[in-house]
Amino acid sequence: MAVYTRVPTETLRDFLTRFDAGELRSAKGIAEGVENSNYLVDTTTGRFILTLYEKRVSAEDLPFFMALLDHLAARDQPVPPAIADRAGREIHELAGRPACLIRFLPGVSVTRPTPAQARSAGAALGRMHAALGDFDRVRPNSMGLESWRPLLDRCGGDLDRIAPDLFARIDTALAQVTAAWPAGLPRSAIHADLFPDNVLMLGDEVTGLIDFYFACTDLRALDLAIMHGAWAFDDAGRTLERDVSHALMAGYAEAFGLRDDERAALPVLARGACIRFFLTRAWDWLNTPADAMVTRKDPLAYLRRLEIYERLGEEAFA
Ligand SMILES: Nc1ncnc2c1ncn2[C@@H]1O[C@H](COP(=O)(O)OP(=O)(O)O)[C@@H](O)[C@H]1O
Ligand SMILES: N[C@@H](CCOP(=O)(O)O)C(=O)O
Predict the structure, then answer these.
(1) In this structure, what DSSP letter does residue 34 have?
(2) Which of 116, 152, 179, 309 is the most exposed place for a label (fewest CB within 10 A)?
(3) Does ligand 1 lie within 6 Å of residue 102's CB atom?
(4) What is this model's ipTM?
(5) pLDDT 10s digits, 69-117
(6) Is 42 helix (H, G, I), strand (E, B) or coil?
(7) pLDDT tens-place string over residues 300-309
(8) Is the CB of 104 within 6 Å of ligand 1?
(9) pTM assigned to the model
(10) Ligand 2 atom closest to residue 2's alpha carbon, by position in its atom list
(11) Ligand nearest to the CA of 100
């Protein structure tokens, strides 16, 4: 589930009076997602998503995210901008949390993408990168390379409760990735978490790119590496689905293009991305109470991906 903060009906009804968004008909908590509280809100004029921002989203970052969404929406990208109230405000406070009322997008996220879906999603990332060419706001990547060592140290020896020698394994992998991290690649605003659950689709067509709350400024090719790790493997990270991998890469390259130096860097960027998602999942695994109403994601699924990338190198992206 992902409803951490309950919003009483009366509070929501009052909140909606700030907008030209009709009157409340129904509101339901949305089970998917792990970071924020989300409600599906139906009013007399339409359907909206109400998001209350929780632990990992800082209120100071919301103007960056909203400017990014407005920029992309103005360039016809399938993203959900926040709805402005009558005073022009997009960012609010509700039930003690920062909150936004967001445009609802149709579509569903896929759990096992087909090659055709991966091609469309890769192309959607490419078009998004093209549209971000003139976006000049900057947000440092709070989940970037510099954050991984401190997070690994915070997990510390507790990692070995998940699997034997896990701390040493990740320590070595991180040292190798840090030493090989590329310099001089193009930087851009990136989504940084474009997993299948953050892409809405109807059939093979992308209808929505959502959940921009890790968006930041970093190496543009890191976005593709993150997406590759999330899309081109089975969920447990045991098998690289080569046809899905090939389609994702082709879709991106056709829509935007991939420089030789970006392609050459993908193996190390993908290993870095595995460490990033391993660490946040491991932290949550170790620190989420067993009875919490949220599904913990398996960190070892990212250790397995890391091992496949280490073994295959460039061949993983063929
Ligand atoms: N703009 C939107 N349009 C339609 N559905 C949405 C929208 N935003 C979120 N959702 C739904 O809410 C779920 C959780 O949203 P998400 O932003 O991924 O949450 P979290 O940040 O907690 O991971 C999504 O899987 C999707 O079903
Ligand atoms: N994609 C991350 C977790 C972030 O969750 P999201 O629901 O906000 O995408 C992971 O799988 O570890």
Answers:
(1) S
(2) 179
(3) yes
(4) 0.95
(5) 999 999 999 999 999 999 999 999 999 999 999 999 999 999 999 999 9
(6) strand
(7) 999 999 999 9
(8) yes
(9) 0.96
(10) 7
(11) 1
193 CA distance to ligand 2 middle (Å):
7
Nearest Cα to Cα of residue 48 among 27, 76, 64, 78: 27
Cα(130)–Cα(192) distance, rounded to whole angstroms? 16
CB of 33 within 6 A of ligand 2: the answer is yes
pLDDT tens for 53-63 read 998 899 999 99
Q: Where are the domains of the chain?
A: 9-103, 115-317
User: Given the CA of residue 211, which atom of ligand 2 is nearest to it?
Assistant: 8
Fold classification of 9-103 (topology level): Phosphorylase Kinase; domain 1 (3.30.200)
SS3 202: strand
Instruction: In whole angstroms, give the CA distance from residue 302 to residue 167.
Output: 14
Rounded to an integer, what distance in angstroms lies between the CA atom of residue 180 and that of residue 222? 14
> Which residue type does 270 have?
A
Q: In terms of C-beta density within 10 A (0-12 exposed, 13-18 middle, 19 or more buried), how is residue 93 classed? A: exposed
Ligand 1 centroid, distance to 102 Cα (angstroms): 10
- What confidence tens digit (pLDDT) does each residue in 135-183 have? 999 999 999 999 999 999 999 999 999 999 999 999 999 999 999 999 9
Domain 115-317, CATH number (from 3.40.980.10, 2.60.40.10, 3.90.1200.10, 3.30.2350.10) = 3.90.1200.10
- Enumerate the β-bridge partners of residue 42: 26, 47
CA of 194 to the centre of ligand 2 (A): 9
